[in-house]
UniProtKB/TrEMBL annotation:
Pfam families: TctC (PF03401). This is Lipoprotein. CDD domains: PBP2_Bug_TTT. Residues 1-21 form the signal peptide. InterPro entries: BUG, Bug_dom1. Belongs to the UPF0065 (bug) family. The keyword Signal applies. Keywords: Lipoprotein, Signal.
Length: 324
């Protein structure tokens, strides 16, 4: 009996200590893993959040870059981390929906490996055309693409197979009922240079990267994805305005924790992030990066992931896009 009583007392103490630790969360530094190299948009978003989150949590919040394998290395590290609220991940939708939709074997699942905290930003893309192309809007471009299908099909620049520009291009091709030829480039600079030089007919890029070239008259902006016009390209209609609402590829950034992270820790993080996203300073910083600051909680994340897995999976099958 004494032994049983002793074990019971130990168990009660352990549970009490766990509860106290959860109530005290956070009591040491928090780490945000970014599965990209430093200097990019994802890294910039994470550092903005980390700075504000540190103030709200009263603990240092550090950013750790873990690039590699198209974000899989960093994502797996977070999925396998202790679910205690001290290891988080900030990544783009390529990690949460594009890869899982187009790659069969992944060491994580976007719905079961992570506990979502919030989607914090949306990133629309813009369809660009070279200046000499005889099409001034999405309808004219779709008509031209149909005429060229099977002959000298229109070529459009992407950031590689399965990238956001590739998927957006296939969405446009399906909406236009045409066949387009994707041409991969290593990044925005190469893509825009090729478009200006006439190597390709169209290109798909982020609004922030494209806006200076559009303003300088070097390329033409045809339409942007998203629910609203881009502040960087106010004269460019959305695809919905252009009569092509199915062209809906919008990147986004979400903060997540490992699955099974304690509810009290998640609640603390959700509340902190919701408050941060109302901060004028961070909203201006995001807007300067051509990102739409948002505060969309766990249910919105699950809905977004579920819908995009279906959409991107369908596009991948129709266009024979695979990352395996």
């Amino acid at each position: 009996m004494k032994r049983i009583a002793g074990l019971a007392a130990a168990l009660i103490c352990a549970l009490a200590a766990t509860a106290q630790a959860q109530q005290q969360y956070p009591n040491h530094p928090v780490k945000i893993v970014v599965p990209f190299t430093p200097g990019g948009a994802t890294d910039a978003v994470a550092r903005q959040l980390a700075n504000k989150l540190s103030t709200r949590l009263g603990q240092p919040v550090i950013v750790e870059n873990r690039p590699g394998a198209a974000t899989v290395i960093g994502a797996q590290a977070v999925a396998d981390a202790a679910p205690d609220g001290y290891t988080l991940m900030l990544s783009g939708s390529s990690t949460y929906t594009v890869l899982p939709a187009l790659k069969k074997q992944l060491p994580y699942d976007p719905l079961t490996s992570f506990a979502p905290i919030a989607i914090v930003a949306m990133a629309p893309v813009v369809l660009l055309a070279k200046n000499g192309l005889p099409a001034r809007n999405a309808a004219e471009l779709a008509e031209l693409a149909r005429k060229r299908t099977g002959k000298t099909g229109l070529m459009y620049g992407t950031f590689g197979s399965g990238s956001a520009p590739h998927l957006a291009g296939e969405m446009f091709a399906q909406a236009a009922r045409a066949t387009l030829t994707p041409v991969p480039y290593k990044g925005s600079a190469q893509l825009v240079t090729a478009l200006i030089g006439g190597e390709i007919d169209m290109g798909i890029d982020t609004a922030s990267s494209a806006a200076p070239h559009v303003a300088a008259g070097k390329v033409r902006a045809i339409a942007v994805t998203g629910a609203h016009r881009s502040p960087q390209l106010p004269g460019t209609p959305t695809f919905a305005e252009a009569g092509m609402p199915s062209v809906s590829m919008v990147g986004w950034y979400a903060l997540v924790a490992p699955a099974k992270t304690p509810a009290p820790a998640l609640a603390t993080l959700e509340q902190a992030v919701a408050g941060i996203m109302q901060d004028d300073e961070i909203r201006k910083a995001f807007a300067a990066m051509a990102l739409e600051p948002v505060s969309m909680g766990p249910e919105a994340y699950r809905k977004q992931v579920t819908e995009e897995l279906q959409v991107f999976g369908d596009i991948g099958r129709r266009a024979s896009i695979s990352l395996d």
